Amino acid sequence: MPKDSPKRGNSSGEIREQYSNWRSGLLSEALKKQPEKDAEVTTGSGLPLDEVYSPLDVEEAGLDYLKDINFPGQYPFTRGIEPLMHRFKPWPFRVWSGFGLPEESNERFKFLIKEGAEVIYVVCDLPSQLGFDSDDPLAEGEVGKVGVSFNTLRDWEILFNGIPLNSLHEVCAVFHANCTMGLALFLALAEKQGVPIDKCGVALSNNILLEYTCRGAYIFPIQESMRLSTDLIEWCAKYLPTWHAARMNSLVYREGGCNSIQEVAFMIADAIAYIEWTLRRGLDIDQFGRQFTANMGLDCDVFEGVAKIRAARRVWARVMKERFHAKNPETMKMRLYGAVQGMELTKEQPLNNLMRMTLQVLSGLLGGAQYITCAAHDEGIKIPSKEAARLSLRTQQVVAYESGAASVVDPLGGSWYLETLTKQIEEGVWEYLEKIDKIGGAIAAIETGFYNNEMVAASLKQEVRSRKRVKVGVNKYRAEKEEPIGLHRENPRVRELQIERLRQVRRERDNRAVSKALRAVRQAAKGDKNMVPSVLEAVKELATIGEIYSVLREVFGEYQGV
Amino acid sequence: MKKTKVLLAKVGLDGHMHGLKLIATGLRDAGIEVVYLGLRKSPEQIVQAAIQEDVDGIGLSSLCGAHMIHFPRVIELLEQKGVESIKVFGGGIIPPEDIKKLKKMGVIEIFVPGDSLPEIVDFVKKKVKPRS
């Protein structure tokens, strides 16, 4: 902080007068000469923008520094959840990886760790996300395709062979519909590796609602899915306090066409639903609230990206404190994973994506993300190649160490534009939360089609806007002929090899113990006990994902959605 | 004049539904009748529904790399059932070499990220006509 406080020379009356002179004089002259003066200028997600912002906007927004902004680490955490943020140490570099056979992904993980990755986020293939074994007829053509294939704990051991869980800063995996098995796999793996589970950072994604609204990888009806998700939150609160139990997500809404107000609102409405379900188990908000995290997409529109993150942090803190009466400030802090948005990247001139990734990572740093995940520039075409994966890590490292943006906490704070936009997003979010409350909360908003209708309407607008906006290499500066880049080569034998291994596991394991464990899973599902212990037992006995989830499908039924 | 009728479905396990819903809306707004079959449909279910609903075209979506298994299977089943006059188009994250192969097999067009909604709607209006 400077030793002398800055002089506040002008009264707002003086500024207002000057502003109106400027508008009618200089600005209107300039507009007259501007042939495109009627073109709509908006943020990346479509919020309208003024030509310039001044102290008047901040005054009109009614912003109170201590109440609304405050210092980093202090409620409502607008400027960040920690006092120092990344001043002395960059965020743990997080990579999103997984494809083919467990051993192929294991090799990639080791390569990325060698190159500086500290958090591995395992991407699983669709059969496993949906609870099917590799030999299920429905898995044809999908095994190891968009993520790594696994059927049993044995695959998970191969995946982390030579990577003790406690050697990573944190480990995550895409587990939503199959989240119970996901938690069990990590517990069983830690035991196998002989590492103390309370020394491992594990982050569960465990956010089934987004499957109904955006990704479509659901299995069970919503109520049963919510029960499974809540089981995990409860289990983590009681026995795994260092884990992250559920990750709320705004990125999926943004990619579904939402603007930054809607994406934040829907993410927080989802969080409210999970919190209410968990409170009904008799837990106190301060027992589990800090184990929630947020995943937000980062933006090429750096200012909007930073504003939406700051707005989300403020609303999150206020919801925790005012709505749920949290007392512990730790509960009120939104722990943020920033992730490069695939929708900003293009398949045309894929190397251009490196620049887009740089902007997005910078917006994550300036916004105060705890973790950042960078996509790869060739993702629009294929699973990232080794070189592309390394470059995505390097993008983070260059921004972290060379941009200087980490030296000062919330360096954009106080910008009239940024503070006004933050406030504008925050107010929009509160309006949406009120609407969703009136419908009856997030689950009712899904069931009545509210989310869906909002997203279809928003994507239609976005589609029109995206045709007007310049996308470099796509609708301007197009290449006559695209230069080929080196792409990832798929192993064509993944399914065959996984089926072979699956059969071997079925031969070698104690099949009577498996049947017994699966009966226990069925019993637990029929009752109202927490599902974690029975699924954990089945996982340890090498029951396959298909076996466990077909038992649950029989008990719970399947979601008949759109 | 008879309205063109198109069936849209996601084939395989991929659940990314936004794009297809958007296309459904765009086609409806352009006066085309749309049967939206939804997620995780097998080629068999799709072809059966297409025959039952007597559609003129089928739009398949797969963003997760299973297109080379499922799209040709739809074409094959249509031929088997003697309804190859139903035109098949598709979209997804589909590499150029696969697009070539699929077109050779009879898929009339493949759309990829970056193609605009009006382009897709125009294409369907021009190339998919009532069959009888």
Give the key terms:
heterodimer; A: alpha/beta; TIM Barrel; 2 domains; eight-stranded parallel β-sheet; 23 helices; B: alpha/beta; five-stranded parallel β-sheet; 5 helices
Estimate what percentage of residues of chain B fall within beta strands.
Answer: 15-25%
Q: Supply the helix-strand structural class of chain B.
A: alpha/beta
CATH superfamily of chain B: Cobalamin-binding domain
Tally of separate helices of chain B: 5
Range of strand content of chain A? 5-15%
Helices of chain A, by number, come to 23
CATH architecture of chain B: 3-Layer(aba) Sandwich
- The quaternary organization reads as heterodimer
> Whole-number radius of gyration of chain A?
24 Å
Reconstruct the topology from this structure.
The complex is a heterodimer of chains A (562) and B (132).
Chain A: H1 12-32, H2 55-60, H3 65-69, E1 93-97, H4 102-114, E2 119-122, H5 126-129, H6 153-159, E3 170-173, H7 179-193, E4 202-204, H8 209-215, H9 222-239, E5 246-249, H10 251-255, H11 260-279, H12 285-288, E6 292-298, H13 302-323, H14 329-332, E7 335-340, H15 352-367, E8 371-373, H16 386-402, H17 416-439, H18 442-447, H19 450-468, H20 494-508, H21 511-526, H22 532-540, H23 545-556
Parallel strand pairs in A: 1-2, 1-8, 2-3, 3-4, 5-6, 6-7, 7-8
Helix pairs in contact in A: 4-6, 7-22, 11-13, 11-17, 13-15, 13-17, 15-16, 21-22, 21-23
Chain B: E1 5-11, H1 18-29, E2 33-41, H2 43-53, E3 57-62, H3 67-80, E4 87-92, H4 96-105, E5 109-111, H5 117-127
Parallel strand pairs in B: 1-2, 1-3, 3-4, 4-5
Helix pairs in contact in B: 1-5, 2-3
